[in-house]
Amino acid sequence: MASTSSLTLSQALLARTIFSDGSTQFSDCSVSLPTTTFSGLKLTTPRSRRVLPTRFNRSLRVRSAAVETIGTPAETSLLEKSVNTIRFLAIDAVEKANSGHPGLPMGCAPMGHILYDEIMRYNPKNPYWFNRDRFVLSAGHGCMLQYALLHLAGYDSVQEDDLKNFRQWQSRTPGHPENFETPGVEVTTGPLGQGIANAVGLALAEKHLAARFNKPDNEIVDHYTYAILGDGCQMEGVANEACSLAGHWGLGKLIAFYDDNHISIDGDTEIAFTENVEERFKGLGWHVIWVKNGNTGYDEIRAAIKEAKAVKDKPTLIKVTTTIGYGSPNKANSYSVHGSALGAKEVDATRKNLVWPHEPFHVPEDVKGHWSRLVQQGAALEAEWNAKFAEYEKKYKDEAAELKLIITAELPAGWEKALPVSTPLIVPSPESRLNLVEHLNS
Ligand SMILES: Cc1ncc(C[n+]2csc(CCOP(=O)(O)OP(=O)(O)O)c2C)c(N)n1
């Protein structure tokens, strides 16, 4: 049973959910919010949406020769089925909207699946649980990956209808992740490079709070920050600057996956981006691992994460070589799948290629069943942490009170007394003014 104070902490975070009418999104949330306690928290009004410009049509040169066709396995494993569910949710949503980026989700589905299904610690029913692991999709254009994962994981913010409303006016699934629209999205991303910089900030915050509040017998702050970034993020200066700091600070709990698919918006990265990213990151003080088969190398991905976690004093970059648009027989490995719907004919061909006989937006029952455990698991993780916090609070009263203030973004009592006292205004005499004019004219 969680202590009252711990519940209060969760409530405060829930209260940060985003509606101008003051309601929360979580209908099944059993806690009621003591509004007076949290009146200091600002509710954000949903923005008026901008109209997304439709990408102009390009004549596409498709490198079909480079595309592998996946054989028809007699029986797909549940894991492959789940990964393909992510791929097809992305394909179907982009197809329905006739707008979006299917390529990245199709290529990154295996690493996304492993992260959300096996590795990350979070509570889908309370996206604001303080000690959750953080995930930042720095390559924000591939947001259907994140929406599909949030949907499968059981977040209330991304229901089937939300997926069907991808990129529509006032939907909870806008064309790039927005943390004030979709609980579960930690950081608004889209401007390339900025997401990984934010991930560095989140990992720094964790390390700072851990240093300040953790005790030898109670490590109350203890979570990881994961990010996925692509070639476009790697090209941006801001990413390098932030990653340099991450290396300098030795942010061991920052693990970034570099989606090394050799394709960017205009074609092969050979055109403009040929630097050695691995060597650069080593130079920045990161631990670097290369997963050579990000398409089906599930064990390779798992082993890389294990290795990354064992390195405590450096952030880790896991370069994962993937195929953009994996599974599409005629468009994979080409820029045509980066930012456009596949088109009905290619969707059919991809369904055949990946042996996916289902209707659009279908989540097979066994896949649903597999993911459903995460709701219970998440609640248990949070309850366990709440109990830990109650212990912490008993033993370290002052620190607990301070940490609570930080988590709920409240100011300590008497904060106004710490404000600097203003100096009385000195009115210059007419003589000194005349002096000044003389000086200026001289
Ligand atoms: C700072 C910035 N510049 C330009 C863009 C427009 N843009 C969106 S995606 C993209 C290409 C990203 O390439 P990559 O990371 O390789 O993604 P992939 O092709 O693998 O999906 C560009 C240039 C942007 N989002 N942000």
UniProtKB/TrEMBL annotation:
Domain of life the protein comes from: Eukaryota
Cofactor: thiamine diphosphate
CDD domains: TPP_TK
Keyword set, alphabetical order: Metal-binding, Thiamine pyrophosphate, Transferase
Keyword Transferase: yes
Start and end residues of each Transketolase N-terminal domain: 81-412
Keyword Metal-binding: yes
Pfam families found in the cross-reference section: Transketolase_N (PF00456)
Protein name (database record): Transketolase N-terminal domain-containing protein
Species this protein is from: Gossypium arboreum (Tree cotton)
Upper lineage: Eukaryota, Viridiplantae, Streptophyta, Embryophyta, Tracheophyta
